[in-house]
Amino acid sequence: MGQKETIIDLLKSNDVMTQVELADFMYGEKGRSPNIYTALTKLVKTGVVIRTGSNPAYYSLSGAESLIPEHQNRSKKDTRDVSADVISNETIEEAELMVEAASNYGPEGELISRCLKKYPVNTDPDLVAMKVGLIDITNSTHLSQHKSKINLVELANIIASIPNIDERIAAGDPDVVNEIARSNGKINLFSFASKYCCYHNRNLYGRDDYSILDTVLKEYLPQYFADVTKGQIQKWQDGFMYKEYNDYISRKLDELGITVEHRKRKFDHFVWYKNR
Is residue 227 part of a domain? Predict the structure, then answer.
């Protein structure tokens, strides 16, 4: 798959990204932003991609993907070769230690834990707004880029108005993810919702009921497991079928014999750490 096709694929999954973010995902390392400048500029000039703002500029699809001709015999999108990765209790725990030791991820995880424990309830829109902002910034969910579809005040009010939300998250109710994800009907917040519920469920109640879905997992789960495709994952997301996605992760961890505490969260960290 060429650079232009890869850029389009990433924007389909993430809605809005900067040039730096696109390059980081494509190459798996920092400092490669100039490498995609030409391809990105051509997509903007042909109207396939829209550029807004500056320093940084944000890129999104215009809906004109058909302007790019199909290539015969296109190669599969380049992804990291995961064939040597062993998923076991030991390797998952090792990855967890590496994530916790990371200079940015570890302290940010501790910050989220402290803040959620200090402000646990989700019935006060002001407190919810602060937690939404914290999770958005630390997890790069880019909610602020979607103000035309939903703003922070609206989202905070939606979350705070969900009946019995705290009791349901404590019990691991999967439909809470769907209710947050549906938001106002103008945007699908499936990924953010899975993170919001997961952080509360683990940090406040010591449980592991929720599996996170993000771009790295969507890209690499099919590399680890032959019985799921990126299209199937997208179907779960588009159809607000969180329980199906969450149950799939549980089933695969059962099949692998993963029994460590908080195995879903640690598996997410394993995939992220290996393929970041």
Answer: yes
Element spanning 193, H or E? helix 190-205
The pLDDT of residue 230 is: 93
* Contact status, residue 206 vs residue 267, Cβ threshold 8 Å: no
Q: Structurally, how many domains does the chain consist of? A: 2
pTM exceeding the 0.85 threshold for the entire prediction: no
Torsion angle of C-alpha atoms 193, 197, 202, 208, degrees rounded to 10: -80
**Do 191 and 238 meet the contact criterion of CB atoms below 8 Å apart?**
no
Interatomic CA distance for residues 111 and 123, integer angstroms: 21
Question: Residue 21's domain is classified under what CATH number?
Answer: 1.10.10.10
Q: How far is CA 29 from the centre of its chain?
A: 18
Packed helices 175-182 and 190-205: angle between N→C axes, nearest 10 degrees: 140
Which pLDDT band, with edges at 50, 70 and 90, does 10 fall under?
A: confident
Q: Report CA-CA distances (Å) from 57 to 21, 53, 165, 240, 242.
A: 11, 5, 37, 30, 32
